[in-house]
Amino acid sequence: MKRGEIMSSTQFEIKSYPDMWESLGMDVARFEKMRCVLGDVFQTTFLAQENRPQRMDYFNWIVSEIHGGRIAEILEAKKQGRPVVGTFCVYVPEELVIAAGGICIGLCGGSQGPVPDAEKTLPRNICPMVKSAYGFKVAKVCPYFQSVDFVYGETTCDAKKKTWELLNKEVPTYVMEIPQMKRERDRTLWFEEVKDFKSQIEKVTGKTITAEAVTEAVKIMNNKRKALQRLNRLQHHNPSPISGKDVLLIEQIAFYDEPVRFAEKVNLLCDELDERVKKGIAVAPTTAPRVLVSGTPMAMPNWKAHNLVEKAGGIVVNDESCIGTRYFKDLMDETMTDLDSQLKALTDRYMKIDCSCFTPNDDRVDQVLKEYRDSGAQGILHYCLQFCHTYNIEAIKIKEACEKAGIPFLAIESDYSPEDIGQMQTRIEAFLEQIKG
Ligand code: BJ8
Q1: Cα(297) to centroid of ligand 1, in Å?
Q2: I need a labelling partner for 372 at 20 to 30 A (CA). Which of 134, 142, 196, 301 fits?
Q3: DSSP SS3 for 316
Q4: Which of 166, 176, 26 is closest to 97 using CA atoms?
Q5: Is the pLDDT of residue 3 over 50?
């Protein structure tokens, strides 16, 4: 199967690369089983949708090669001496990795599979995203984890920052301190951390990051973010030319794919969506309840909430999370030409991200309401991963703001196990009924 060829649901499989996985020191037998399960879930969740845009074929292809073709590209880059850096948070500035000629890969775990492996060491009552990611590494069932030169964690939440100390025994793990407030003194600290991040990348790679390289990297990342913004605007159209599930999938792929190619493919898809809008081709009727999903990020393959909303006849029209708008809503100033100004502009750009680990974080409440209005949503589903205290508590403020504005609101706390699907389905169906009035 060549990239971009039309792929029917019966042809789909996630490709197997046992020799490559063996060479990466993976548990191949176990990973084979996970590959098959993922392929089946992808087929029923995505390929069974009716009337999908044809240019989703590229993203299907990426999923089919997610453990092979993309890994081969990464290993080839490594051979050329380009650094491969794993990250877990959108506060870590990708631009500097790209400026060093490197590849940045999001390693957040979105699967229940390796959670029991993590629970042999980590407490059970912490965030599933952290357990999943750690489990992927200790069980040796993630080719990305096995391919990175080092990982860069951060101090956003307690579960993450303490897990980095353990992860460091498995793979070199550096940590960026993210302050918890946004005062001038916090900006000063953050700027120092951005400079340290740059120095660390230079030290590990033996390369000096120049202002010219940063300029180029900023353009690459801005173009990628602009493409995602365009997709987000098209998703807002009523009737929607693309499902919320497909948009989520693309947003997840953004953390794995090569950024220039990815932006080009997203723009090509958006051209098709523009045509669909003109012709009135839609994936749901105008009467379908329109839901904005807000909260904790959903790492691949966490498609649970979107799947339930759309199976129940609703449509997800916006993702206010770090997989969604928090990742791409802010662009970087491209006018800076010296390194000091560039690093300051990078600090400013990243400080705009309104994660609940900050206090106060009222900008996020305003942003959620803004995205609600911009997207033409009719209700807000606050999705929180279990044991994520900051998002869970911040949901109270979002709920209060929704009550004040008369916006239907539903808060769901979930993990990656299938056990709560029935209960979630009932609550989501009732929520959609409430929206319909
Ligand atoms: S900027 S949302 S990517 S920290 S969900 S691991 S916070 S316990 S993912 Fe996040 Fe950066 Fe914030 Fe975004 Fe901890 Fe909460 Fe789990 Fe979280």
Answers
A1: 7
A2: 301
A3: strand
A4: 176
A5: no
Maximum C-alpha span of the chain: 61
Q: Report the nearest-CA residue for atom 15 of ligand 1.
A: 388
How many angstroms separate the alpha carbon of residue 198 from the centre of ligand 1? 22
Distance between Cα 112 and ligand 1 center (Å) = 17
pLDDT digit string, tens, across residues 57-109? 999 999 999 999 999 999 999 999 999 999 999 999 999 999 999 999 999 99
Assigned token pair, 243:
């499902």
For residue 115, which phi and psi values (nearest 5 degrees)? -60, -45
Assess whether pLDDT exceeds 60 at residue 6. no
In angstroms, the CA 330 to CA 323 distance is 13
CA–centroid distance, 398 to ligand 1, in Å, is 17
Which of the four CATH numbers 1.20.120.140, 3.50.50.60, 3.40.50.11900, 1.10.110.30 does domain 220-332+354-436 have?
A: 3.40.50.11900
Measured by CA distance, the residue closest to atom 3 of ligand 1 is: 89
User: Is 316:289 a contact under the CB 8 Å cutoff?
Assistant: no
Q: Indicate if 220-332+354-436 has the same CATH topology as 18-207.
A: yes
Partners of 176 in the beta sheet? 154
CA–CA distance, 99 with 301 (Å, rounded to integer): 29
What is the best residue among 115, 124, 125, 156 to mutate for testing ligand 1's pocket, by most ligand atoms within 8 Å of CB?
A: 156
Residue with CA nearest ligand 1 atom 14: 157
Averaged confidence pLDDT in the chain: 96
Local structure of 288: helix, strand or coil? coil
- As beta bridge partners, residue 154 has 176
Q: Are 177 and 156 in contact (CB under 8 A)?
A: no
Ligand 1: list residues with CB < 6 Å.
89-91, 127, 129-130, 156-157, 159-160, 296-297, 322, 326, 353, 355, 357, 385, 388, 391
Domain ranges of the chain: 18-207, 220-332+354-436
- Determine whether domain 18-207 maps to CATH 3.30.230.10: no
